[in-house]
Specification:
about 25% strand; binds adenosine-5'-diphosphate; about 35% helix; alpha+beta; about 500 residues
Length: about 500
């Protein structure tokens, strides 16, 4: 066999995957291994970085064995990863000095509180809102919680990386300590206008610059993987949501994607502009190819597909997530019911940590079907909330929404989303958009893909949804949703 593939490593919060993509952008072979999160205290989430590295070796070996390929068949390696998760390791031994702190973890919240008065300043430079999600306060936490952390960092004995950097370091056997612009832009230490580590922010968090990785474009020859018997170039790195935007072929300004997983992440390509949202959206680097930097606006919904998990696991209303579609269709209409799944507060545009979930409009004839239908609709309404502020902030004309993620298996959800947004929805043929996006970035650098136009020509859709609901009906329904959300925010 001499067919060549791109080996994409997709390191997520709950699993590590390796996928081989061919010239048509098809995922032809896959391997997956779970990783275990550690919860040392309420609200804290950590993971063993060594386990992440070992799971990466495993899935690479497994996908090659399964597919009967060898490293000879690999054109290049691409890495996409859970963003913001923070690893600090000893430069000499390559051993982590603390568990990696996962993006969701709130353990560095008190560090962020100290910088509340600097929030405008941070937003202007990084595009981010001051929050423990981002890496800066997590690095600070680690340096404060290990012996002589600050001293060792200042002496250059420690290195910091997000998961991409950690895997790149390991795959190159400690030769390369680098990251790409998309991952750097989630650390809260990176100036997205100058495209450099920001001296003032590093000083603010008292983080010595010598521990930070070099920042490179997303499509770039980062180095060669020497860990395995044959040297393979590593040519693409991007954070998961940015990779998905690229994998959805959202190459032009005004192109929009939404991922429906546990939570939902909506990203809008805003070209070379750097709009700063007044409505709770983040501005982030979408990718860099050559010298050209593309930016995106990003909004997030905390509980997306997870509301269906909740119906299944806690409420026992469903055997499987996919049954939600059948029940929703059995409900003749929604009966004016709104479920607001503010289980962990609300994300964009509310950023309300204290809001809690509620259900409104129940009557004597409300049944399970209505309940399930309202849960699915709540996913679409929350995404509309994000969409509305994106439109407010940019005044852009959007032609379609490209979707991916586990919950896009639900046709009722996608039709309702199209109705409520009054927007066409495209579901791509390859739903592995994250791994595909970074494979595209890698292939563009290695020459596996000749150009962005070639990628556009192979990109195709399996389904399209168009709005069927009248605008007046949409307006009335959405008005009800806004009332319901606002009630969850005042009832405390
Ligand atoms: P993640 O990457 O965040 O783990 P996935 O993209 O794998 O998430 O999607 C899983 C989520 O999608 C789960 O929360 C699950 O409840 C939801 N989900 C899966 N299938 C369906 C379905 N047919 N209808 C509605 N939700 C679904």
């Amino acid at each position: 066999m001499d067919e060549k593939f791109i080996l994409s490593i997709d390191q997520g919060t709950t699993s590590t995957r390796a996928i081989l993509f061919n010239h048509k952008g098809e995922p032809v072979f896959k391997a997956q291994k779970e990783v275990t999160c550690i919860f040392p205290q309420s609200g804290w989430v950590e993971v063993d970085a060594i386990q992440i590295w070992l799971s990466t070796i495993d899935v690479i070996n497994e996908v090659l064995i399964k597919s009967n390929n060898t490293f000879k068949n690999i054109d290049s390696i691409a890495i996409t990863n859970q963003r913001e998760t923070t690893v600090v390791w000893d430069k000499e031994t390559g051993q982590p000095v603390h568990n990696a702190i996962v993006w969701q973890s709130r353990q560095s919240a008190s560090i962020c509180e100290k910088f509340e008065d600097k929030k405008e300043y941070i937003h202007e430079r990084t595009g981010l809102l001051i929050n423990p999600y981002f890496s800066a306060s997590k690095i600070r936490f680690i340096l404060d919680h290990i012996e002589n952390g600050q001293k060792r960092a200042e002496k250059g004995e420690l290195l910091f990386g997000t998961i991409d950097t950690w895997l790149l370091y390991k795959l190159t056997e400690g030769e390369v300590h680098a990251t790409d612009v998309t991952n750097a832009s989630r650390t809260m230490l990176f100036n997205i206008k100058d495209m450099k580590w920001d001296d003032d922010l590093c000083k603010m968090f008292n983080i010595p610059k010598c521990i930070l990785p070099e920042v490179k474009p997303s499509s770039y020859h980062f180095g060669d993987c020497t860990f395995f018997p044959r040297n393979i170039p590593i040519c693409g790195i991007a954070g998961d949501q940015q990779a998905a935007l690229f994998g959805q072929a959202c190459f032009e300004e005004g192109e929009l994607k939404n991922t429906y997983g546990t939570g939902c992440f909506m990203l809008l390509n805003v070209g070379d502009k750097i709009p700063l949202s007044k409505n709770g959206l983040l501005t982030t680097v979408a990718w860099q190819i050559g010298d050209k930097v593309t930016y995106a606006l990003e909004g997030s919904v905390f509980i997306g597909g997870a509301v269906i998990q909740w119906l299944r696991d806690e409420m026992k209303l469903l055997k499987e997530a996919k049954d939600s579609e059948k029940y929703a269709l059995e409900a003749d209409e929604n009966h004016g019911i709104y479920l607001v799944p503010a289980f962990v507060g609300l994300g964009t545009p509310y950023w309300d940590d204290d809001a809690r979930g509620a259900i409104f409009g129940i009557t004597r004839d409300t049944n399970k079907n209505h309940f399930i239908r309202a849960a699915l609709e709540s996913i679409a309404y929350q995404c509309k909330d994000v969409f509305e502020v994106m439109m407010k902030d940019t005044n852009m004309k959007i032609k379609a929404l490209k979707v991916d993620g586990g919950a896009t298996a639900n046709k009722y959800l996608l039709q309702f989303q199209s109705d409520i947004l009054q927007l066409k929805i495209n579901l791509p043929k390859c739903l592995e958009t994250t791994a595909l996006g970074v494979a595209y970035l890698s292939g563009l650098c290695s020459g596996y893909f000749s150009s962005v136009s070639e990628i556009k020509s192979i990109h195709s859709y399996q389904a399209t949804y168009s709005p069927k609901m009248k605008q007046a009906v949409v307006d009335k329904k959405y008005e009800g949703w806004i009332k319901a959300v606002n009630s969850t925010r005042t009832f405390k």
